Amino acid sequence: MTYVRSTFRHPALPKNDLGYTVDYYEGSLSTLCAGCGHDSINAAIVEACWELNIEPHKVAKLSGIGCSSKSPAYFLSNSHGFNSVHGRMPSVATGANLANRDLIYFGVSGDGDTASIGMGQFVHVVRRNLNMVYLVMNNGCYGLTKGQDSATADAGSKSKAGSVNLFEAIDLASLAIELGATFVGQSFSGDKEQLIPLLKAAMKHKGFAMLNVISPCVTFNNNPGSTKSYDYVREHVEITGTMDFAPMMKEITASYEAGSINDLTMHDGSIIRLHKLAKDWDPFDPNSAMNAIHHAKRKGEILTGLLYMDQDSIELHEMLKTNEKPLNLLSKFQLCPGSETLAKINAGLR
């Protein structure tokens, strides 16, 4: 087996508006298990960034520890990256974002990295509405330590070893909405047509965009009895509605099936177009989204698609009224305004 990626690419590969072919957005050759859902998500990220004409050097990838947290090595090799410690990715993302708001921040985490050791960090990054994409590759088990149930494993699900999980699962999508996340989506790694538009919309959203993606572990959690297996997810998916993403200032030429259509305008003018919407579901109402999730759960289904979005989101920089320039572009005078300015500040605190 070779771990060297072939450099050959077809000379007629299409280019995006920046002049790049899709291979410019790829990363290192994956060392994850063959068939891992995480690799499908990585491929979707590559496709989404290429189609959005994002320059890779304007993306910062951050992660914690776990199979999912290895994934940033496998996409956008020409971007910035930082692999933090277990569960602490949100702190690093917050610091980096406050220092340089001009980058697109892409946090990759797993169900253990987020729902267990990183739960406290996750709660606070949500409530601060940090401008980032927070993607959870959720397989319901700890793949690096031989498949023990994680905090997102459903009660009654059976592991590969045959043990039945006794505890209720933490529903990360519901929790994110409850905590005030301004964009929440859920998808399946095997549904590329749904996942790519969701990723595009999340990257264009101003504020905290959380995507919970069910990503089956082919080695430890793809067995009969698991509610995170490929077969179970495919048989129990309930979709809120199909979705298309239209970049800003580009004509929409696609045709759509008859049915209810709702255009959601992003902050930069891009449009998410939803059609065939699920009954009694409103993507602008958090209570409606929560009810839809709980209703699907009671029926044993997994609700996917765009669950909720706040179009009037106020992100962290706006709350704190931070400087619009990245810190590394500020002059010495701006960083050290002198003793007279310091005296005025001190006088105002008396």
Describe this structure in words.
- A hairpin with a 5-residue loop joins strand 11 and strand 12 (271-275).
- The relative contact order is 0.12.
- The protein starts with 36 loop residues before the first helix and ends with a helix.
- The strands form 3 sheets. An 8-stranded mixed beta sheet has the order 2-1-3-4-8-7-13-9, sandwiched between helices.
- Residues 250-259 have low confidence and may be disordered.
- It has a single domain (22-320), classed as Thiamin diphosphate (ThDP)-binding fold, Pyr/PP domains (Rossmann fold), CATH 3.40.50.970.
- It has 350 residues and is α/β, with parallel strands linked by helices.
- It has helices at 37-51, 67-70, 89-99, 111-115, 119-127, 172-179, 192-204, 230-236, 286-298, 316-320, 332-335, 339-348; strands at residues 59-63, 80-83, 104-110, 132-138, 141-142, 148-149, 183-188, 208-214, 237-239, 242-246, 261-265, 271-275, 302-309.
- The protein contains 12 helices and 13 strands.
- Helix 1 (37-51) crosses helix 7, helix 3 (89-99) packs parallel to helix 5 and helix 6 (172-179) runs antiparallel to helix 9.
